[in-house]
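We emphasize that the prediction below concerns an isolated chain of 440 residues; any contacts that depend on oligomerization or on bound cofactors are therefore not represented. The input was used exactly as deposited, without trimming of termini.
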Amino acid sequence: MSLKTFKGGVHPKDGKDLSKSKPIKELLPTGELVFPMSQHIGAPAVPIVAKGDTVLKGQKIAEAGGFVSAPIYSSVSGTVKAIEPRRVAVGDMVNSIVIESDGNFTEVEYQETEDVTALSREEIINKIKEAGVVGMGGAGFPTHVKLSPKEPDKIDYIIANCAECEPYLTSDYRRMVEEPEKLVEGMRIILQLFPNAKGLFGIEDNKPDCIEKISALVASEDRMEVVPLMTKYPQGGERQLIYATTGRSINAKMLPADAGCIVDNVETMVAVYNAVKWGKPLTNRIFTVTGDAVCEPRNFYISVGTSYQQLLDAAGGLIAPAQKMISGGPMMGFALFDLNVPTTKTTSALLCMTEDEVSKYETTACINCGRCVEACPEQLVPCKLAQFSNHGQKDQFEKWYGLECVECGSCSFVCPARRPVAQAVKNMKKDILADKRKKK
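Result of the prediction step, given as a token string:
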């Protein structure tokens, strides 16, 4: 069996053995939950409840603030304690709805669809939109927008991102092992929207059990296929996944739809299934708590809005002081300064490490070894781009295709001089894009 992949990439420590063998455990939160109004790309949601209101689990508490936006639903029953700015994981203060859970989890009644195949395209899109489904791999792009390209007949591939290439994370793995049927049904629903498309499940070969399970489920499906992928980071990057599974390429000025592709990750497809079949809004997700500082690493079925601290406590707390705590994985996640911040639709993991390995090394001069060039999945010259960034040379940065960087961090990972190459490139890219927005 040949394995598909892309040029470049790296092989960081896997770390998945800490949590991959433990079944998903449901975690029922206590106390207050915080629901930021910006849990997605686009306009923030607008609160439709007031302080003192009683709410049920699955009740809409905020409506979409525009076309590129998504409604938000309560994941618990309880009382609205406040509507005020609250600190979120990235450090910003974001307007949020605070709900004090009553511990009963009294739920609204959902409307099941008995025959999903009888639904029109518009009805399916509306159910996904109304359920507040967004990209749950981190980007948070409203899914109803992604599934509404200008020319749906030109979409050739729906790609399920089952790679989970980020080290330590195992939430998608556990979902595929325990509930692969929901993933396949989510794909089936999305394929209803695109009559000319084929569904591809891109799975890295370090998950042979997932490949076997999903292959068996789609064996009789003419429009679905499992594509085994080489285990390599960032195999799950959107551009890399599209190239590996279809051979098609996109750049920073293109959307996947421009190449006839739509990509959704595992949790998003499951959320689509829950929304269309069962009428359930997005209120829960699978979340990995792991790292060598965690007492009992595992995956939890969490209520969105639960604090990181509650999740760490549910995993037994720390067995040793954590020098580094990260939201997400070690390659593309970001450091946390406080665990008393809420999880959202797009947060997938808490990683606690006993050592901050990056801070142990002293940065030295670039030795022009070219390792960052070999590792870059976009075939850029990261060391040169970092140099332009450090000297404020925006024109040169763009001339050398700096805006094509996917911010995967592979360049920093392989740099023998321990230079923060990816951070420098990311900062310059951010500044240039900000300048472009101001000129519009």
